[in-house]
Amino acid sequence: MEPEASTPVPRVVAWEVTRACGLACVHCRAVAQPNPHPNQLTTQEGLKLIDDIASFSKPLLILTGGDPLMRPDLFQLAAHATERGLPVVVSPSGTQVNADIVARLKAAGVKAISVSIDGPNPEVHDSFRQVPGAFDAVIKSLDFARKGGLPFQVNTTVCQHNINYLDEILALVKSLGAIAWDVFMLVPTGRGKVEMELTPEQYENTLHYLYDMAARNEIQIKVTCAPHYSRVVRQRGLHAIEHSEAEKHGHAKSTGRPSRAGARGCMAGNGFCFVSHVGDVCGCGYLPIPAGNIREKSFREIYQNSELFITLRNADLLEGKCGCCEFRYVCGGCRARALAAGLGLMGEEPYCIYQPRGS
After folding, report:
1. What pairing do the DSSP bridges indicate for beta strands 112-116 and 152-158?
2. pTM of the model
3. 316 in a domain, yes or no?
4. What's the number of domains the chain is made of?
5. 285, 239, 236: which is closest to 262 by C-alpha?
6. Nearest 5 degrees, angle CA 181-CA 332-CA 237?
């Protein structure tokens, strides 16, 4: 299997505009806090970051957190990104969205919002989010989005807490009118390190389950933080890619076949990057190794020339069974999981049960 060309410019940039959040989710990467960090990027620094990104690429810009709605200048930042030609989506906690917020997001050019639902009912979701009433608030928020004509995607993080509820969650997502269901496979960092982790066997079974659900052609299903979903798609022989206008806000058209649009390998530093609330540029939000800081170097210089990102783009540097795997150029394993497991940045993926040919 031949390597696919590395992406010279980012396709997706996630900017953690704040760590402030009213929730305390058990899996949270950010270990979010109730108040903004005193050193978070200022409005002017944020506008400059957007200008720098737009100067050499036009990636999807995800304004995330924390809860980005806790940042007063969010709408200004979103509008500026829209003016610079960047498609913008916002990932609020889902507890503060109302008709006015929806109208202001649309006025700023926001293409869609993505909101997390991690259980099919208040009992499961609220225990995960650790805030009573969070489930009902999310459902109400999505009702505002639907009535206001703002497309929305539902995100679900799969872990021990909810792995037995996936059918029910999927049914709920479809009933709400979401344009996509993005399933995140837990990366054991932040608050997600302990009892939430799946076993490698559960992980593999879940990927095959999601493949089967995507084949039903009922809703676009994407799988995030699961590079070996690329392997599953290829092993099962479906390679179709069909896109629609929805891809402009990060969603590809459902074809009745799981597409490679929802099956990408590890994009950390190779098509995707994460900018923290204080300006650190990382391969992803779960990989706590900065490639640089935008207060010291331009985003473009960091993305294109940092030693870390150059390493992450080179699948030939992978170690262990990832290094000899025939799927290494389309999967590559999760670098954050390898690092968290003590196997090193380019170590083998600890959650993959596949044995490469000839290994």
Report:
1. parallel
2. 0.88
3. no
4. 1
5. 239
6. 60
In what order do the strands lie in the sheet containing 12-16?
Answer: 220-224, 180-185, 152-158, 112-116, 88-90, 60-64, 12-16, 272-275, 280-282, 292-293
E strand map for the chain: 12-16, 60-64, 88-90, 112-116, 152-158, 180-185, 220-224, 272-275, 280-282, 292-293
Q: Report phi then psi at 92, rounded to 5.
A: -75, 170
- 314 within a domain of the structure (yes/no): no
What range defines the domain where residue 237 resides?
A: 12-275
One digit per residue, the tens of pLDDT, for the chain of length 359 reads 444 444 579 999 999 999 987 555 554 544 556 667 889 999 999 999 999 999 999 999 999 998 999 999 999 999 999 999 999 999 998 888 999 999 999 999 999 999 999 999 999 999 988 889 999 999 999 999 999 999 999 999 999 999 999 999 999 999 999 999 999 998 876 554 556 889 999 999 999 999 999 999 899 999 999 999 999 999 997 544 333 333 334 433 333 344 444 456 899 999 999 999 999 999 999 998 999 999 999 999 999 999 999 999 999 999 999 999 999 999 999 999 999 999 999 999 999 999 998 66
Spacing of C-alpha 294 from chain mean position:
21
With respect to residue 201, please indicate whether it lies within any of the assigned structural domains: yes
Main-chain phi, psi angles of 95, to 5 degrees = -100, -10
CATH code of the domain containing 51: 3.20.20.70
As a whole number of angstroms, the distance between CA 59 and CA 303 comes to 13
Nearest Cα to Cα of residue 313 among 325, 304, 322, 326: 304
- CA dist 43 to 80, 87, 107, 133, 159, Å? 11, 19, 19, 32, 36
Does 258 fall in a domain? Answer: yes
